[in-house]
Fold these 4 entries.
Entry 1:
Amino acid sequence: MWACNCGMALATVGIFSCRRILVGAAVAVVSIDQCLWYIDCILKLGTGKFQVGVARYLEWPETPFVQKVFSWHHLWFLPVCIFYLRNTGSGNMPVDSLKLAMIGVFSMGIISRFLTPRELNINMCFECWQDVNISLFHIFDNKAVYIYLPWLIVMFNILMIIPWQLMLMLVNL
């Protein structure tokens, strides 16, 4: 949740200050979640169910209508950033965007863990989201900070490489 907000803030600042590296870092930070949104929404159209689970909260009766409306940024944010990166500067992904994103993931994980209540679980700072049914992601849920945060940061940064390759390809087309 906060990663998307930080990603949107980074991209906005980057676009208006002509700092493409910030837009590239924003793309990297949100790419896992937002690529999974595409998969989840396509599968929802095909099967009638959010199979991955990242968008499943849209069906929960307790999810406020406003949150449901504003959640659709998960589908338009990456195309806007990719359009910007392709049509500015040299038309490719700025060098060091991924490194900046990895530093951001590290910072957001630590800040979220120490400044937010457990029940909010912002940026998965205490546990992986419960509606994501991949047991590997849950093996250190609710463990001590010195166990869970390194796991979260390493796992997220490793997983970020996969959609990052797709983002590079889309920007460099």
Entry 2:
Amino acid sequence: MIIQEIYLKDWKWSVKVFYAVDTYYVDDILGELEAIGCSRDDLKQAEACLCGVNSGLTYSNFKSRSSVIVIGLTSSAAQFQNTFDHEKGHLAMHICGFLNIDPFGEEFQYLVGEIGQDMFPVAKTFLCDRCRKQL
């Protein structure tokens, strides 16, 4: 598992990203989710999502402007791209909804771009099948 912490300065939002998560790390991630205010019901749903390949989740606490993203183990670079984009989309929509950003506007695209750029230094390793084999 690789952990990345990013801060989206233009939106004053903290994000902790967990990559290549398998069942061994479920308790650690549930602890992180609980620390940012995840309810018991949401924790149960999260636990179910954390046990499969090609899965992920995003949880946000709007009061503290913080989120946790989990990208589980993936079967290929293409599948990583799919899960990566999916979870980035959830994060962007959480922030967008909280800050009343128009999802059809330019500001939303800048938000999505900043999320992608900030996550790229770690994510790039998983976007190449050859690189993934070296992990």
Entry 3:
Amino acid sequence: MNTQTETENGMERRQEVRVHIDQKPYHSPNPTTGTALYVLASVQPGLELYREVKGDREDAPIENGPEHVRLVQDEHFHSGPAKEFKIVVNGKKKVVTMKRLTFDELVDLAFNPRPTGPNLMFTITYDSGPKANPEGELLPGHTVKIKDGMEFIVTPTDKS
């Protein structure tokens, strides 16, 4: 099934295409979102959706979020465990499955138990990151995209 609709001004075309998720056929609007694909196939919590690619490359993960996903008729996807990323935090190897880490998540990875105090603050610097953020400082309330081998230094400081 490959249907098309037009908007009132005739400028935008929206197709419905057949895709296969975990070897089952589904019909989806095109473009769609990652969230819509996860809902369409009832992807179980803790699993991630992957777009199958040709050759010996890794299948591409689909974010469970509002980003647009362009589909191709009869394209194949599969669900599976989230990819693991090996990172280094304060010289210690850590394994995480999130593609982005928050400031607080990195502090928790660096310290167990987490230091506390009325004047305690943390600074986080990183390097060996992906092209989007190869190096820099992470500020409280922000997130950073990660990749294998990324290194973080989390430092507690007393702001007195």
Entry 4:
Amino acid sequence: MLETRYKSPEELRFSIGEGKKVAIISCGACANLCDTGGVRGMNFIKGLVEDWGNRVVAARTAIACCPEPIMREVLETTVKGSGAEVLVVISCSAGVKTAVLCNPGMPVVAACDTLGPSSLIHQD
């Protein structure tokens, strides 16, 4: 499991821009266990984005963001046709990379920094 922390609000706001239609995909696996992803993380980022004057046109929590088949399904069923201009991915760098490799047709913005293997895992 990779540990994630939110980027600063200033960095995220700069990366998204102003007056954009935003799609959000949140990881239900590792990022959720780090309290950055899942439904709670999605709602948190959605609130920030809307407070900045952007409109969230699609939002979904995925079981995990790193497997390409899951990311492709989420993009196809949730993001495609939404009119989104930017995709915010709440996951570790693996999920962000997968989103980019799936070529969603819009800029991909990482909402989190990846810190490395989690200290939440007990190692003997």
